[in-house]
Amino acid sequence: MSGSEGDLQRDGLEAAQPCGDFFKRATSPPGCDGDVSLLPDTGMEKASRRSFQRRKDAVVQHRALLGEKTYISIECGQSFGRSSDLTRHQRIHSGERPHVCPDCGRSFGRRSHLIQHRRVHPGERPYPCRHCGKSFRQSAQLVQHQRSHTGERPHVCAKCGRNFYQSSGLLRHASSHSGEKPQRCPQCGKGFGDSSNLTAHQRLLHTGEKPYRCDNCSKCFRESSKLLIHRRAHTGEKPYLCPDCGKGFSQRLHLVQHHHTHTGEKPYKCAECGTGFGDNSTLIRHRWTHSGEKPFQCSHCDKSFTRHYYLLSHQQGHTW
Question: Rounded to two decimals, what is the model's pTM?
Fold first, then answer.
């Protein structure tokens, strides 16, 4: 230790590296629950609680400028420059959602997410789509919707190159590479990469909850995305257009499968005989020819069929 450094420590001063600014180490003033922090040397031995907090905030900002991250998650080791950022992060592990919607009771980990959610309740939709006229409450929702028309997928996985419409989809996908599953089901202990997959799991296997209701027919769904697809059956909306023939589809998967009829691609292969198919549902039906499975059974007799429309034709014989 140099002589100047020793003099600084005897005077209660400490240099903040790497910029050389000097701060005085001080304890919290009486009645303050704050931890020991570095205070700028003002020559005052006794700071008021308000001035203490003001200086403490200045130190936090100073550390952020230096890139210091002194708040560490005990669950995963990730570090943060502010305690508030750590608090928000810890809700990922704990599942805590303190911000509750007064309209429907749904809860969120961040206040900003609650504010965005509240726009789904009745209100104005000032952002119309120039392709189909559908309107949205948020400009970000419009941007994401327009990608269903353009096919744009700007969020790319650095590991495998897979593309996604939304950054949230990329984040969920990334957990499949890292293997991290911090979200645990309290009923069965199964782990998930994010809270949305955990919620879907709980509704499917444990609670049976279907909170998303169709305004047209009152049918309920476990996921908002499934309700969105279902609504297209009422509106006739088919936002996914084939670039080769212009045919529209209500789901992207149906467009992908249809496009194989143009390219001749048959990516779904039968493990038994090697026959290829353009879509997975046709492959499943084909497999029944090997297994002998006939999943569509008549409720009037013991006869069963490999296809649903075969069953419907058969059941008409019972009504005559």
Answer: 0.40
